Amino acid sequence: MRARVLAVTLVTAAVAAAATQAAAQPSKPLPRTPAAWCASQGGVAGTYRPFYDAGGRLSPLGGQRELCEFTAADTSRITVAADTLDADLPTLAALAYVRKPALPQHPQGNPSAVYCANLGGTTQFGNHKSDVGGWIKDGEPRDSDHLRDMCLFADGSAISAWGLTYHTGGVIRGADLAGKFRATIPAA
């Protein structure tokens, strides 16, 4: 009798565990790559390379990064690193975008670079404020009109410095990313 009760208990526990696991599975598979997540949110992923802006002369740098760009009907855009958008946990870039910390009063220099630095990120490509650059998508012309400004944070997350600055001021460029991050971003 004890063996029978034990067997029934084990079978019941196994069935309950299987049902719980099945219920926890999403109804449709989530995209498996940052580029796929980007596309599922309406963005366009691409490979971008960094360029140092030496006063009108762009110098290519090593490395590359997959970025996700959202473009609105008015042609405004916002660019975010695809792995920042796809991260399972909140990133510093996502927290800054969603929480919208206050803009600094009377910034000196580029307002988006100052805001990024106030948040603990950087847009600089060197030790001096004049050391600037950006990211250009593979296949696009290598000129300053095609540079994407990025605010890079210590956790490796990155988002458009101007897009972040405008969003804090209540202006959406490209798309509102607040509901597009894979991670749940907690309120401040």
UniProtKB/TrEMBL annotation:
Protein keywords: Signal
Signal as UniProt keyword: yes
Signal peptide (UniProt feature, chain positions): 1-24
Domain of life: Bacteria
The name this protein goes by in its record: DUF333 domain-containing protein
